[in-house]
From TrEMBL:
Keyword vocabulary terms for this entry: Aminoacyl-tRNA synthetase, ATP-binding, Cytoplasm, Ligase, Nucleotide-binding, Protein biosynthesis
Name of the featured protein: Methionine--tRNA ligase
UniProt superkingdom: Bacteria
PROSITE patterns named in the record: AA_TRNA_LIGASE_I
Taxonomy of the source species: Bacteria, Candidatus Daviesiibacteriota
Length: 470
């Protein structure tokens, strides 16, 4: 059986999921469902990046012991996936000393044996929000452009990874598409960063600065492994690296990493270089999406504009949120969420578009006693092409063009005026088209797809509206 292994990014758990996070989860679930439809053996992994200083700071603010804080928040993140209808096969936590830590230490040793880890004293500006050092050139008015905070000047002796050694190899891999990066603007971003000159980066922290949490550096009890060198390994430790070689060999390399644009560099530069050093296969493709803003502003606790996906789903339903996120966020740019736009899309596309079409045809079929006797639906090849390119919004646009075309045809033909045999012919064609639309929507809107397929099998009857107007 063919296999497909994909991952979401591994979030910090210092905060809770907001509505913007759901974009990545729905993208991953849609890709996964498509490959399941094609009879692939699929595996979807996420996890929790728990060995970060920002987690310690958040736990102190909450007045909770760090492990208790991690247990509570990681559970919320894992449950959010399930609440959103996204089934994870694996949720690998960074604090897992049985499965994660042995793999991280094994990985460290492989890079060390290759001569790519050395120790030196270093001073630099460190952004806790990004969990990375910043150069003066990267700052805007002395502040981190992502977190709007002033980095802390850090001076200590740490271990470093020879990233500079892999500069030419990384350029070659990306330019030859051996490491595929989608979309192209994010690919060019990665290439531009690499070609500007790579510097070795720190991969450990003193126990004191790490506040005692994290994976110990093999052979040096005074140091912890840096959060990114640690957390990226979740993609492998979750599937057995360091503890179940058979499972690891079955699934690695990943077919697809899905991440946000803010962690492009870590996945397209650091991670491939680390894997090259360890002598391990690289992921096949990295998909990088933009942010979901709220009325043009970045969603953040400090701005006070956080909306939870749970609140949206409880008010409007799961699949309307799923549709909005997938249809309104082009893969190569940022999207925007507002309740005004959400309601507009809901009423226009779901209630008046898909829902109305299904109701119209079902009513005609019910009134004439029409029965579906053969199922010959097909998955739209144009949608399949767009989906393989991860152009989720364009794929859905193609489906809605089919919906509009059938709606227009009903208005033109006026089937309620047709003689019985002509009406049956029309309903036969229309039911095949609607079943094809439903099948094509199955990776995007699985519940809605199943409702339509069930309604349009056997004797068709009217049903409650798929999407009542709001």
């Amino acid at each position: 059986m063919k296999k497909f292994y994909l991952t979401t990014a591994i979030p910090y758990v210092n905060g809770l999921p907001h509505v913007g996070h759901s974009l990545e989860y729905f993208q991953a679930d849609t890709v996964r469902r498509y490959y399941q439809l094609k009879s692939y053996d699929t595996l979807l992994l996420s996890g929790a990046d728990e060995n970060a200083l920002k987690n310690v700071q958040a736990s102190e603010k909450e007045g909770l012991p760090i492990q208790q804080f991690l247990d509570i928040n990681s559970k919320i993140w894992a449950e959010t996936y399930e609440f959103l209808g996204v089934h994870l096969d694996i949720f690998q936590r960074g604090s897992d000393q049985k499965k994660h830590w042995p793999g991280v230490q094994k990985f460290w040793k492989l890079c060390q044996e290759n001569g790519d880890i050395y120790k030196k004293e270093y001073a630099g500006l460190y952004c806790i929000g990004c969990e990375s050092f910043k150069t003066n050139e990267e700052l805007i008015n002395g502040l981190c452009p992502t977190h709007q905070t002033k980095p802390e000047l850090i001076k200590e002796e740490n271990y470093f990874f020879k990233l500079s050694k892999y500069q030419d190899k990384l350029v070659q891999l990306i330019e030859n598409n051996e490491l595929k990066i989608t979309p192209d603007n994010k690919r060019q971003e990665a290439l531009s960063f690499i070609k500007s000159g790579l510097e070795d980066f720190s991969i450990s922290r003193s126990n004191e600065r790490a506040k005692g949490i994290g994976v110990p550096v093999p052979g040096d009890p005074d140091q912890k492994i840096y959060v990114w060198f640690d957390a990226l390994n979740i993609y492998m430790t979750g599937i057995g690296f360091g503890w179940d070689d058979i499972k690891y060999q079955k699934w690695w390399p990943a077919d697809l990493h899905i991440i946000g644009k803010d962690i492009n560099r870590f996945h397209t530069v650091y991670w491939p270089a680390m894997l090259l050093s360890a002598g391990l296969p690289l992921p096949k493709q990295i998909l990088i999406h933009g942010f979901v803003n709220l009325k043009g502003e970045k969603i953040s606790k400090s701005v006070g504009n956080v909306i939870s996906p749970q609140d949206v789903v409880k008010e409007f339903g799961l699949e309307p949120l799923r549709y909005f996120m997938l249809s309104q966020n082009p893969i190569d740019s940022d999207g925007d969420f507002t309740f005004e736009r959400f309601k507009e899309v809901y009423n226009g596309d779901l209630a008046n578009g898909l829902g109305n079409l299904v109701a119209r045809v079902a009513k005609l079929a019910e009134n004439s006693g029409f029965e579906v006797t053969k199922t010959t639906e097909i998955f739209d090849p144009l949608v399949e092409e767009k989906l393989k390119e991860f152009k989720f919004n364009e794929a859905l646009d193609a489906v809605w063009q089919d919906i509009a075309a059938l709606d227009k045809k009903i208005n033109q033909v006026e089937p309620w005026k047709l003689e019985a045999n002509k009406l049956e012919e029309f309903l036969s064609e229309s039911s095949v088209k609607i079943r094809s639309i439903a099948l094509t929507l199955s990776p995007f809107l699985p519940e809605t797809s199943q409702k339509i397929l069930k309604q349009f099998s056997g004797k068709i009857q009217s049903a409650p509206p798929l999407f009542p107007r709001i």
